[in-house]
Design brief:
Layout: E1 3-4, H1 8-14, E2 18-21, E3 25-31, E4 38-42, H2 50-71, E5 76-82, H3 91-106
Parallel strand pairs: 1-4, 4-5
Antiparallel strand pairs: 2-3, 3-5
Length: 125
């Protein structure tokens, strides 16, 4: 099983990499400079209460446990960000979407860069 990303700086670095959005999640992949395959999971409070967020994290961990060893990119960080409909989505469908997203990233194809939405930036503390 790949290592777990725990440092905030690693999550922020992954945000500078390639991104593939799917209905249940967003997958970020970024080269980590030879630290092996690593993964991280993020689910914000917008998704739901703690029970819902933890259920989503457990589902994502199980998805990554099967997909990353053979489908993940070597020496890259993989970060899954939960989206609103991710908890209710069928697990088999999520698995197919993750394998398709990993295949797309292996080809070097990410989604186009996001356009900044005015008014959503919060000031830095």
């Amino acid at each position: 099983m790949p290592a777990v990303i725990r440092k905030r700086s690693d999550f922020l670095a992954a945000n500078r990499g390639l991104r593939v959005a799917r209905p249940g999640f967003v997958l970020l992949v970024h080269a980590n400079g030879g630290k092996g395959k690593r993964y991280g999971i993020t689910v914000t409070k917008r998704i739901g209460n703690a029970v819902v967020r933890n259920r989503m994290k457990r589902r994502f961990r199980e998805l990554l446990r099967f997909a990353l060893p053979e489908g993940g990119l070597a020496d890259h960080d993989h970060v899954l960000i939960g989206r609103e409909g991710g908890v209710e989505r069928d697990f088999a469908k999520l698995r197919m979407e993750l394998s398709a997203a990993l295949e797309r990233l292996r080809e070097g194809k990410g989604d186009p860069p996001r356009k900044g939405r005015p008014g959503l930036r919060r000031p830095r503390r």
